[in-house]
Specification:
By secondary structure, the chain is α+β, with helices and mostly antiparallel strands. It has helices at 17-26, 50-54, and strands at 2-9, 30-35, 40-46, 59-64. It has a single domain (2-64), classed as Alpha-Beta Plaits (2-Layer Sandwich), CATH 3.30.70.80. It has a four-stranded antiparallel beta sheet.
Length: 78
């Protein structure tokens, strides 16, 4: 099962974000968005690929993307 993740690029590799995105893809990540100016790459990957992703040069952190949804404004639960 794939989980949504956010990869943070370390400062020393900010100029190589596109190359790092290619490496992440080769390591099993489905890259959805590359935000080069801020050093963030989002996407999804199987949980067993996480260690390989974290071990790549230039990766500062790999974090699970926890999302939530608020109920509609007219619902009883607020």
């Amino acid at each position: 099962m794939h989980e949504k993740i956010t990869v943070t690029v370390d400062d020393a590799h900010l100029g190589q974000v596109a190359n790092l995105a290619d490496q992440l893809s080769s390591a099993g990540m489905h890259v959805e968005q590359v935000l080069g100016e801020v050093g963030i790459i989002t996407g999804s990957a199987p949980s067993e690929a996480r260690a390989a992703l974290e071990g790549l040069a230039g990766v500062s952190a790999v974090e699970s993307d926890n999302s939530f949804q608020l109920p509609p404004p007219d619902s009883e639960v607020q």
